[in-house]
Amino acid sequence: MRQQQRNLWGDITDMTQDMADLIVHLARLAQNTARTDLTAAQWTALRFFARANRFSRTPSAFSEFHATTRGTASQTVKSLVTLGLLQRQNNAADARSTLIEVTPAGHEMLCRDPLGDLRRVLSELPEDVQRTLSVTLQRATMNLATLRQVPTFGTCADCSHCKEGTDTAYCHCTESMLTRPEMASFCIDFQPAGRAD
Q1: pTM score above 0.90
Q2: How would DSSP label each residue in the chain?
Q3: What was the pLDDT predicted at 162?
Q4: Which of 17, 54, 55, 179 has the maximum number of C-beta atoms within 10 A of its C-beta?
């Protein structure tokens, strides 16, 4: 017999259904933009370009990260450029595309990110709970991305393409050296360590 658990609203539901509902509800609470000037999609874009590495700061990479069409992603980026929060730059590595950079005004806006409340709540959890939750969410994200056959985003520090050194790392995918700060950035070419290409 399936294990049953009483959820926060008093109904008896399957535990996995309850967890899925709570994760979606938590995400909606965290992304509530009622008191901000940006939409949830604009916040997601601003966060992405602030966290993405130099190989991933493109509208097409954002569209994959946000699981939306390139047209929708382009419109979101365009709106943030118009607001002066993002700016387009020529991509020296690929003349067919542009790189998106966060402007000083964009970084200032990120200081008012509505996800800050969620970060504070999570930081108050015991450290062992934070570690377990982090590993669990990463695993669930990778498994769902595999099931849906969409890219998994992660940081270079956890990527099988990277060979870490003391202060730098070599990325076999991009054939370039990465600095220590870049190791904590999102990458479109992310391949979870231990998983075959």
Answers
A1: no
A2: ---EEE-TTS-EEEHHHHHHHHHHHHHHHHT--TTSSS-HHHHHHHHHHHHB-TTT-SHHHHHHHTTS-HHHHHHHHHHHHHTTSEEEEE-TT-TTSEEEEE-HHHHHHHTT-THHHHHHHHHTS-HHHHHHHHHHHHHHHHHHHHHHT-PPPEEGGGBTTEEE-SSEEEETTTTEEEETGGGGSEETT--BTT---
A3: 73
A4: 55
For residue 1, the model assigns a pLDDT of 40
Dihedral sign computed on CA atoms, order 20, 189, 162, 77: negative
CA 32 → CA 22, 29, 39, 100, 115, distances in Å? 15, 5, 9, 25, 9
Quote the distance between the C-alpha of residue 28 and its chain's center: 15
127: amino acid identity, one letter: E
Q: Which residues of the chain have pLDDT under 70?
A: 1-13, 93-95, 156, 163-167, 193-197
pLDDT tens sequence across 133-186: 988 988 898 888 888 887 777 776 777 777 665 567 777 777 777 777 777 777
